[in-house]
Design goal:
Blueprint (H helix, E strand, L loop, with lengths): L8 E9 L2 H4 L6 H18 L4 E7 L4 E5 L16 H19 L11 H18 L4 E9 L8 H13 L3 E6 L6 H10 L3 E3 L7 H10 L3 H4 L14 E2 L6 E2 L9
Parallel strand pairs: 1-2, 1-4, 4-5, 5-6
Antiparallel strand pairs: 2-3, 7-8
Helix pairs in contact: 2-3, 2-7, 4-5, 5-6
Amino acid sequence: MAEPQESDSSLLVVVLDVNASAWARSPLSLDKAVQQMVIFINAYLALNSENRLVVIGASHKECRYLFPSDPSSIPPMHDIQVYEQFRVVDVKVLSGVHEMIASEMDDEDQQSLISRALSMSLCHIHRVSESSISKIWSRILVLSAGQDSPHSYIPLMNSIFAAQKMSVLIDICKVYGPDSVFLQQAAEITGGNYLKVDTNNEASLLQTLMFTCLPDQYTRGILNAPGNELIDFRATCFCHKRVIDIGYVCSVC
């Protein structure tokens, strides 16, 4: 297997949990979190002119591509102080998040479709990898504020093992609530980082993203990334969707 080089381009897929009911309980508001994420995205794009970006919003009703999308919906603006690519990303991500929030304001509390967003991410990564001439190192960054959904355990684990086979790192930024057992496993199995953000400090999310999630595969090989030794690898049963210590396992699986 080829090793990452310093000059290699990257493909970053950002999955944003935009579940308004989950963010309502967080000390860090969704608006401020998205603004800090946009700053991180701009820094990622500035690292290499060939870096590629995809942003997917995940609510409890749908998963939607926020970027790239139709560029004709962006009003023209000539500002020599703003890099045009940054402005396009900022407008599309912020407006897309606000549209998704507005469509679910009156809905009851449910879990976000993170597993579906991961499936969309892997499909896009596979399509880009197959159509690209040079090697592109891909990774996924998930910003989560909700809790685990036992009913999504099987599709989520399928996505995790698919990402491992495709050599796709999955980084997790958990903003609020108890640690996610499923997302901890996603980061550990794929070689990514699982990070619990200190929401009492509003700037801690941006600091975490910049210092831990910004480095690519090549740079991570020479850095000492934070580890997580307390990872729960227990499985979820098919019948009751509960996390168990001991259970019957299919001989084929």
